[in-house]
Design brief:
This protein has 363 residues and is of the alpha/beta class. It has a domain at 2-73 and 82-136: CBS-domain. The protein contains 16 helices and 14 strands. The longest helix is centred in the last third of the chain and has 19 residues, at 344-362.
């Protein structure tokens, strides 16, 4: 039964998926930022109109890391006039085009080969107006979870017994300068994981997550350049940075003569500025935050790391990750000593191994 399930056409996973919001390769970084804010989506895709091929994607994390470069901190407004392709990840295979009649097994194989998103055509009556949607790791895991019974007893095994806890993790100390996390932020975005913030006893006290940063605005680059890792966690907290932290960032920017970034900060944290000029829209519930602006509230932005334990079952961890809209969960002991991390990729490997094992048994 599981073999026939893996033969499911991925068009079944695309039902109700909205068409992708896209930008041409000629767009600027500023246009990408505007598109992200207007859509409330985590990513916007970049397309080659001549070939009708998605050449990349961009999120606010890409923009923040880009603005954290020394030259761009000096002149952020000039930096965002650059071509969007200067910011888009150059890693091959992150995005894969698949036909709508491709199988679920093919989709899983693409993900395990490194694809973060799968581009699927949405067929319409007009060839000229061809549209596309995309599938993520979460979409595939959610689909598996809806038919979890056919994979019994796998879902009942603990994540420790399945040996899917990755011991190699991205971590920083609470007091480390946030700027030292830049390479880790880029790596966590690529791996769709997170950066654990630890105390001196190797206990997890929080995280700096690309999922959280993607819900922030570009001024977070100033916070990364001036704060510690611990203060950065508070700065990107779901309720927004405190006035004290904002003032601390501004003071340190002034001390470093980063007037361009100061101007950008003033634009966002001026109580008299309009909400639309400083905050993002979203399909999720919105509400007032500090400085009188309207912020986005959805599971991507939070102040606590998502944790599980080695003795938790696979299905319990899957449900937790799906419910909280994350692609990973930190694995800790009872006292929050860090053990490792569980990712969607490792979970998908377990289901893929079932397909491989049953195929071999038929030979």
């Amino acid at each position: 039964m599981a073999i026939s399930f893996f033969a499911t056409e991925i068009s079944d996973l695309c039902l109700g998926k909205p068409p992708l919001r896209s930008l041409p390769t000629t767009a600027t970084v500023a246009e990408a930022v505007t598109s992200l804010k207007q859509s409330g989506e985590a990513y916007v895709t970049i397309w080659s109109n001549n070939d009708c091929i998605c050449v990349g994607k961009i999120c606010m994390v890409d923009v923040i890391v880009y603005l954290c470069k020394e030259d761009n901190l000096l002149s952020p407004l000039e930096a965002v006039r650059a071509n969007v392709l200067d910011v888009v990840s150059k890693v091959n295979g992150q995005i894969r085009h698949l036909e709508s009649n491709s199988s679920l097994l093919e989709a899983i194989d693409c993900i395990l080969e490194g694809a973060q998103n799968l581009i699927i055509p949405i067929y319409t009556n007009s060839i000229k107006n061809q549209q596309f949607c995309w599938l993520t790791q979460e979409d595939v895991v959610r689909y598996l979870l809806n038919s979890i019974g056919i994979f019994s007893p796998l879902p009942t095994y603990t994540i420790e017994a399945l040996d899917i806890i990755e011991k190699s993790t991205l971590t920083v100390n609470y007091n480390d300068p946030a700027i030292t996390t830049l390479p880790l932020i880029s790596c966590s975005l690529l791996d769709q994981t997170s950066i654990g913030v630890l105390n001196k006893d190797n206990r997890l006290i929080g995280e700096i997550s690309p999922f959280t940063l993607a819900c922030c605005d570009e001024t977070v680059a100033a916070a990364i350049a001036t704060l510690s890792a611990g203060d950065l966690m508070a700065y990107i907290d779901y309720s927004g940075p405190s006035d004290d932290l904002v003032n601390l960032v501004k003071t340190r920017l002034h001390e470093r003569n980063l007037t361009g970034m100061l101007d950008l900060m003033d634009e966002f944290y001026n109580p008299l500025s309009s909400p639309s000029s400083s905050c993002c829209s979203s399909d999720e519930e919105s509400g007032p935050t500090r400085n009188g602006c309207v912020g986005r509230f959805y599971p991507g932005r939070r102040f606590e790391a998502i944790v599980c334990h080695p003795w938790n079952s696979l299905i319990a961890v899957m449900v937790q990750m799906i419910a909280l809209r994350v692609s990973y969960a930190w694995v800790v002991q009872q006292d929050y000593t860090l053990v490792g991390i569980v990712t969607y990729a490792e979970i998908l490997k377990q289901f893929r191994s079932i397909a491989g094992a049953r195929n071999n048994s038929l030979i």
